[in-house]
Design goal:
The structure is a homodimer. Chain A is an alpha/beta fold and about 280 residues long. Helix content of chain A is about 55%, strand content about 15%. Chain A has helices at about 10-20, 35-45, 55-60, 70-85, 100-110, 155-165, 175-205, 210-215, 215-225, 230-240, 240-265, 265-275, and strands spanning about 1-5, 25-30, 50, 65, 95, 115-120, 145, 170-175. The first copy, chain A, has an eight-stranded mixed beta sheet with strand order 3-2-1-4-5-6-7-8, with helices on both faces. The first copy, chain A, is globular and about 70 Å long.
Chain lengths: ~280, ~280
Amino acid sequence: MKNIGIIGLGLIGGSMAIDLRRKGFAEQIIGVEADPVNAAAAQKIGLVDSVVGMDECVDRSDVVIVSVPVGAALKLIPAVLDRFEQTGAKDKVVMDVCSTKEMLARSVKYHPCRRQYVASHPMSGTEYSGPWAAIPGLFEGRAGIICDHQESSPKAVRTVEELYDTLNMRLIYMNSSNHDVHTAYVSHVSHVTSFALALTVLEKEKDEKHIFDLASGGFSSTVRLAKSGPDMWTPIFMQNRDNVLRVMDTYIDKMNAFRQAIAEGDEEQVRNLIEQANKIRRIIR
Amino acid sequence: MKNIGIIGLGLIGGSMAIDLRRKGFAEQIIGVEADPVNAAAAQKIGLVDSVVGMDECVDRSDVVIVSVPVGAALKLIPAVLDRFEQTGAKDKVVMDVCSTKEMLARSVKYHPCRRQYVASHPMSGTEYSGPWAAIPGLFEGRAGIICDHQESSPKAVRTVEELYDTLNMRLIYMNSSNHDVHTAYVSHVSHVTSFALALTVLEKEKDEKHIFDLASGGFSSTVRLAKSGPDMWTPIFMQNRDNVLRVMDTYIDKMNAFRQAIAEGDEEQVRNLIEQANKIRRIIR
């Protein structure tokens, strides 16, 4: 049992808190939360034992989980490592849960306490945010990615592996740069397509009642990610810009190929494109 | 209780068969199915009492449901009305369940038995097809659209209203042309975006294992519709071409706006686009 510090008590941090306590990994959970409304809610819901300042949280925790949007994490992770250094805390570990990894890796590359940081990304979430969005079992069976594990001390890596194991995650190892390429494909661009779909329908369909009346399950599932908030997603697109743009370009090409086939009434080509797309059945259950 | 004929024993026809029987609307259900494998399966599963030829099905049914892809329906609905005329069957009703309506409406506009046809679209489905995809409760709470009801006899409309009522659908009335505009927005284009996403990921991510390992719930729900088959969707895009192209153009504009904001590192504009897209929360639960 460990003392866990969680910086950022939103969907991910809060859901980790629930399961790490429930499953006996955490002895005590101390939180840091900049937003006073979220902080009060996190305490009221019982996600954390107390909400304190950053230094106190780091000093009282064995493992610090940084679960804030990637822009903020870029400053916070080095700050936590600074505190480790200042206080001579050689056994503590800090991990993050961010959706982009390369810029983070660069920000700590030469930090004297680099080996106490484990870069990680639990691939789970919902379109909701804040401590009230936290749910048990969020990470069950999902991929828990550990990046650049050779840059961290084996002991620190082992701690994070045990933590993800407690959450029943499937551990996957890759380097930061590959991580950012792959997540651009299978996560970041599907958010852009969903945002664009919402914008299209909201602009074209002025009468919201029609959207509400006619939206079938198919539309709802495709547009679901468009409910995801800008605080999380703006910095992801900024930090993973080159990869995201490359995938978007391919995507726009595919849309144009569809557009042309439909415009030309080329039934065979439309059928052909759909059949190619159907191959996703082999991969996604 | 009525004798129901179902032409096309796939997901929609099969799911209607299950609930119309279960809820006591149908006395007997007779099917027509061109594909011998599907026909044998539909009988084995027990969706229908027997599978017969088209004329026999029409002659033995009070209500004929045409549940085939829109291309085939374009020929079948006039053929069913022809049979009504030949046999002097003035009390029978034929309805369809197709996702595009304007071309169908044109195909029967001057048919002497036009008033025995009710154009309808139950807005429900899954990404699977065939009789084995049929499930109970598929239509529960969904929109059941009746188009151009003034072109049908009040008695025929009432029959279809009762049928949809039995399936617990919410009845909505509109003309064919508006139907095709609205469904382009909230259904057809979300299929194109999903197909394009699948094509993009399959092309970019050569290693399928990575897609499988990393696909989170968000990606899966966005790409789900890309499992939908070409037999259903090719004719929809062909028949609703102008509306679909118009919405696709707006969509491609939105993607380009996103692309530009990300490429320029314009954080404020990215945030702004996401916030606008988030308004979909007001409409989709």
